[in-house]
């Protein structure tokens, strides 16, 4: 009897499963046969129901089929973010259920390829690379040449978008080696290669490529247009462009493709100084992306969606305008769309890649406001311009800082806890991927890590939506008064630089005022800055020609208009671009013929320089943790050619001055650092470090291993101070706005607000002397910015140090980024005051006693 019941339920279960599977396929096919908004709405409702019911792998596969068709429709109708979300869910479902073993369903063609293209469209370059590499790997495994070539084409297009043209050429040349390339793919590869060759100004190679080209008439004319445009022959470019336009009807071009075509046309008319024609083309582009928009002019924000073509449209529209207000409104729409796109990015690499376009736009907005200010003298425009500068300063660091502050405020919130755990995992796997790509680079391992990162990205996006609903953005407008209030408290002045393409802007905020200066960034000006920075490449350069140094240091002082700050003792500097590598303390305030460094009028003699990555960080009030002592790491590297002899002196000085735990030699391991770093309020690392290169990221050495930049990103630290007594800890690949991708930045990302680090290579007795002096002063004041300043002054005034060793090469390498902590009261002064107070009381008592004695004698007499 039991067997009969079991068989009955089994048959019913199979029947139900088949019915559900068939129901899903029927729903998908019904939608495919009649695609419109109404059928999409119904399909979405059905999808939600199916998600809660699917159990078997066949049902899961049916749902994936439905989602891929839904994603395709959403992509075609410019619902890009919804399309991405749908494809991501389909891919996650496919991988989690290991459906590649069950079916020959083409996940590459139906999901991975469109998803990779969507990431590229929305500027999510990290996920795009990861996704394309995943399907190239799958294509290699299945020996599917067509998909391998397709992957190469899409990867090349992606790298072309981010101007990595040398990489593009390598990818294309490797793709050419595949057998049986069809004519369409070959034409695409040739077109991509030609565009990158043009960007590299290799016209001879372009000409050779044309002679063997199999491209269509449209592609040939389009290529001629690109070549003439790059050469600056705009009339010839327009002629070729119009010829290509005639063939548009013969090729399939999406609405988005047409919009991009009209934007190119508008850019060409703009270069030919035909603004009316350019505006007509832009209106055509807008109507391609917004079919229901029937007006002239600009759409409103509510009409827009995350699509980077809008940014190209609004940026060009603004550039054409003569009216400053209309230009700023158009740029504002570009920033708005950029923000919509950014909401869907999860990796910091993607955010940094996209900083450049925002920077260029910010400079144009500052230009407009500065020129308007010169005419109107309206001071409110200056703070508005300052905000454009500030919005592009260390935005990734700011974002992480806000997340950490929110988690501190709500430590028991499971959403925030999970988000932070995923962010740490993302950086951990990114670090592993970086190391793998530097090493053996096994395709299977790279693919596995890429899949991990994709899965984390999917989860972060889901969490982000939930968190945004629970904690809506608090768009508090930062006021000038708030900055000035902080400056009054710190007895300081703030100077922020914006290093643009054409102009270096200097914003000065004092207790009562805000001013702006502009410096034209000519080639000569840039070269002067670079020459000054290179004076610190080696100790001998300055000492071999001291007069050259003093002349250059004074010239840079004047160039950066630092004399405008001369009446202020504490100066907060927010550097930008090349200025990140200039030690402002070592600038010379007036001309001098002296060759004695201790007598030179260095900025440090009259002013205390404190740096920060952004004015927002300076403004943020930070709470100091309870003093839990200092953790010091000193690998020393004895018996090697990298021995750090003077590092031992540093360790002794720290032990003398501070409550500390010191890890020396083999105990100064990477593992010990990772285990203990979060337990101490001060971290001190005296070791070797590297700024990295175009292949290797910045890194810092421990006794037995190397800690790479991405590994630092995955740490959660909250020290009061980090001291990096190592070479090049402040140097790294420079990204506009975000700054140098250095070890110091890695510690900032991990949670350190106050850092002392070096800008160039220096391993010398002078370092240990300065560090010793720093901790002596820190022990007295508990203020890092005061201790840093005093250590440099004491070094210059120390008569036991030779003039050669007083070169700024030795003492100005260390810069302090952080807050201006108030110094603790000097106990000696307290005892003196207390002693005077006690002495005064005793004196008063004595006088009172004497007076009382005189009065007694008078009465008795």
UniProtKB/TrEMBL annotation:
Name this polypeptide is given: CHAT domain-containing protein
Alphabetical UniProt keywords: Membrane, Transmembrane, Transmembrane helix
InterPro entries in UniProt: CHAT_dom, TPR-like_helical_dom_sf, TPR_rpt
Species: Mariniflexile soesokkakense
Stretch forming the signal peptide: none
Domain CHAT: from-to ranges: 566-818
A Pfam family assignment: TPR_8
Residue runs in coiled coils: none
Transmembrane region(s): 828-847
Source species, domain of life: Bacteria
PANTHER family to which the protein is assigned, alphabetical: RAPSYN-RELATED (PTHR10098), TETRATRICOPEPTIDE REPEAT PROTEIN 28 (PTHR10098:SF108)
